[in-house]
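Our working data are protein records whose layout never changes between entries. An example says more than a description, so a record of this kind follows.
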Amino acid sequence: MNNMPKDLDKIKFELSEKLEFLKENAESEEEIEKLNNFASYLADKYSQIDDEDIKTEKLNRINTGLSYYQRFKKALEKNIDIDPGRLMGLTDGIFGMVMTLLVFGIALPELQITYYSTFLSFFSSLAPTIGVTVVSFVLLSSFWIYHHEFIKVNNLNIPYLWLNVFFLICISFVPFTTSLIGHYSHFFLSEVIFGINILLTIISFLLMYHYANSMHFLENAPSKKERNYVYQTFGMIMGLTIVVNLLDFHVSSYFIYLFLLVPVISTIRDIRFKMNE
């Protein structure tokens, strides 16, 4: 040990310090285990190298890589000085605007209707559009409730902001995909596009929730039971979305109204969860 070059001793010490720092700041037991395995791998692999110059060069590369990773992670996760209330205000504003746009998607006839029978005929032709608008409004309301119930943050960073923006992008497309079904319900592709829109919204919400929890941004850190409740609830909605699309294709387009079960399922699950707390 005393015969080893000083540079090698220094590199080993720095590597050890960096690995300890990463373990202290690890977000889960799984990450700590991976770091321990990596340390064991380094010890086993480089103990077999007799040439100290080669060993020094290789360990120095790893040390440099860890230094870059450490700085990158620190910069990426650094909190920014933005009031979380502003983000919540932006989110509420977009939800309100999107919900309003849903109704604007129900177009009135360009020609004036003078006969009652014509009005009835026109109104009946609007039934599919009105129906899917109600479905979309219910889904958006559910997402808004979930956002306010589960995502109450007291800190922010750039990745979280962009996750929230991606979630809002998905929300903003709902009026468009709703109009597609309203005007082109006879094309199965229109319902697939709507389903993809809802799936992406669910995925973006879960990513946002998971990241906020892992970064300790949530005001009240959820227990494992609470996290499972959130993941299972959205998993059920995701499954319902897939089932609706399959039934729309094989049976009838009216199965899109199964989405109206979302608030029912959510309410029942919420009551049962709170009863078992």
In short: The mean pLDDT is 79. Residues 6-76 form one domain. Residues 222 and 228 are 10 Å apart (CA to CA).
